[in-house]
Amino acid sequence: MSAEEPPVKPTIAVTMGDPAGIGPEVIVKALADDEIAGLASYVVLGDQGAFDVQGVRNPLQGVPDTLRCDSHIALEDFANAPPEAIAARRPTTEGGRASVDYIERAVRMCLAGEADAMVTAPISKAALKMAGAPYPGHTELLADRTGAARHAMMFASPRLRVTLVTIHRSLRSVLDTLTPEAVRDAVDLTHRALTDWFGLDRPRIALAGVNPHASEGGLFGDEEARILEPALETVRGEGVDCAGPLPADTVFLRAAEGAFDAVVAVYHDQGLIPVKLLGFHDAVNLTLGLPIVRTSVDHGTAYDIAGQAKADPGSMKAAIRLAVKIAERAKGKGVRNPLGS
Description:
Elements: E1 11-15, H1 23-31, H2 34-37, E2 41-46, H3 48-54, E3 61-62, E4 73-77, H4 83-88, H5 93-112, E5 117-120, H6 125-130, H7 138-146, E6 152-156, E7 161-164, H8 171-177, H9 180-196, E8 205-208, H10 223-237, E9 242-246, H11 248-256, E10 262-265, H12 268-279, E11 284-288, E12 294-297, H13 314-333
Parallel strand pairs: 1-2, 1-5, 2-4, 3-4, 5-12, 7-10, 8-9, 8-10
Antiparallel strand pairs: 6-7, 6-11, 11-12
Helix pairs in contact: 5-7, 9-10
């Protein structure tokens, strides 16, 4: 490439999510933003009928023979969701199947090098189950389809980054499945994400405790001493700066005020309540450990406002910006995804 030629923009595959939810609306609103549209070439994987039924003006074109065209925005129309399922604005078998179809196509594009990253609109876990998909969410489906040996879910907002050790499981089952190895993987993947994706030379990570006051020396449980501390000993021996276990009722505030670059939370709501409280409209869900780049919105399908032009595209815009940033950084390193297992 000569000095006069501009760099080739990345190609981003954007999945519609559940076509009965707000995915079609937030995608169109995000891509209607000139700044977002100019960042990359986009292929939206979804159903034209969803735009029609939801009453969303669709500015997308059909997919051409050559995907890599600067500032191009295209739709690959699967036509796989009947209008009645879209209009239902609730979980349906058809919506669940369509969601999986879009995701699997995006994964294939990324693995084949046809796309540099994938960005996902929200799906319904209930619809996935109705469709017979044996996955509690995006993360587990993506890990299976890419053959990832390990994976973790991180949420990143301007004020707070949080990685989860356990994801979609009941609170009762968390302690039965929590292991030092799982904690170690979450901390390690977080360290690598902060280094490779966010460009931090010496990331500072905090590990939240399981019990109140991080058990206060064993007064309120032994999980800190039995599970968390052995994991910390291992990662510290590998050169990772990770404080903890720290009381969960204060560690997120400390991180939001700049004491840490990320917090590793033990279970779903422990980590996501502070993230969504501080940055619901600009937080991004990203999957660590995959051989591809994937980011997502931090919200659900919001069936109750689908088709009403009320959906906020802020999280979709943030997810696209981060996907582009990571894809460009990965290209600069000469690898598809620096966090691949």
